[in-house]
Design goal:
- There is one protein chain.
- By secondary structure, the protein is an alpha+beta fold.
- It contains 3 helices and 5 strands.
- Helix 1 runs antiparallel to helix 2 and helix 2 runs antiparallel to helix 3.
- The longest helix has 21 residues.
- The mean pLDDT is 86.
């Protein structure tokens, strides 16, 4: 498992996730489609930003290559589970400065889970599918 506990910003998380895809998911003959990597980086940004803004701070960030994609786990310091975490992914009707993150995560990620951590806080984990780029 690859973990990056030194990540403190969404930009650092995106760079780390991209390096895992490049080094751990891909190989000399296999690379992920660019549009899938863009989706992954959007999910990373939303999850990490939510942890920082709404989860009392980012407590950890893990990226694990898996068959067909990558697994992300974002740890924060809040035990509050967002109401929309398991919603249908409907975008808000009007823009009020926020509200787009969870619908995007729901649309782009799979196997979304929110678990409380024994020492406090929670972990949001997701699977983001990646397809192999054409040769």
């Amino acid at each position: 498992m690859r973990a990056q506990s030194r990540v403190t910003t969404a930009a650092e998380a995106r760079a780390y996730a991209k390096s895992v895809v490049r080094d751990g998911w891909g190989s000399g003959s296999r690379a992920a489609r660019e549009e899938d990597v863009i989706d992954l980086l959007l999910v990373v940004s939303e999850l990490v930003t939510n942890a920082i803004r709404h989860g009392d701070g980012l407590a950890g960030f893990d990226v694990v290559p898996a068959p067909g994609g990558v697994r992300l786990a974002v740890h924060d310091n809040s035990e509050v589970v967002p109401d929309v975490a398991y919603g249908p992914g409907v975008l808000p009707v009007g823009h009020h400065g926020n509200g787009y993150g969870w619908p995007l995560i729901i649309r782009l990620a799979r196997e979304i889970a929110v678990e409380l951590r024994p020492g406090g806080g929670k972990t949001v984990s997701v699977f983001v599918p990646l397809r192999e780029a054409p040769a």
